Amino acid sequence: MQTLLRFLYFLSLIFWLGSIFFFSLIAARSAFKILPREMAGDLVADIFPKYYLIAYLCGGVALFTTIINWVAGYTASGVVYTLIIAILCVMLGLSLYAGTVITPNAHESRMEMRTLSKDVPRYNEVQRNFSSLHKRSAIINSVIFLLGIAIVILTAYTYRDRRLF
Fold it and tell me: How many Å apart are CA 2 and CA 139, to the nearest integer?
């Protein structure tokens, strides 16, 4: 059982951090480099629900397996696991906020910008709102990724004295 829990924990972290890395540094950049801006925006908007679903599932699995490992007594350090659980909760909370609040609001602003002419004063207001939401989303995404790296470091720390091979 312990091996299965660890496997699911590591797999969820790998998928979660990998999806953030791939989407942010490769997929989104390539879409905006190759496609017209509006089409790239449509593509990214279509990917977002799946992207956040991966975050919710992987975050949930990582949190669940960490808690089960802790409760079952499979862990050596309660302090480190408490920290990992706290970080996972923050990561998952930020993902939920970005996926359920920021993304729908940004999509709404993007759709409204398409209906307005650029010379209309409302266009600039909507564009500023969209830019602000996009910036907040990018910052949150970066924080989630960095916190995930911190979890990897903490997990490696907990395994430093164990023979793996």
Answer: 35
Q: What is the pTM of this model?
A: 0.91
**Tokens matching residue 36:** 């017209």
Rg (CA), the chain: 19
Per residue, the 3-state secondary structure of the chain, as one string, reads CHHHHHHHHHHHHHHHHHHHHHHHHHHHHHHHHHCCHHHHHHHHHHHHHHHHHHHHHHHHHHHHHHHHHHHCCCCCCHHHHHHHHHHHHHHHHHHHHHHHHHHHHHHHHHHHHHHCCCCCHHHHHHHHHHHHHHHHHHHHHHHHHHHHHHHHHHHHHHCCCCCCC
List, for residues 7-39, the tens digit of each pLDDT value: 999 999 999 999 999 999 999 999 999 999 999
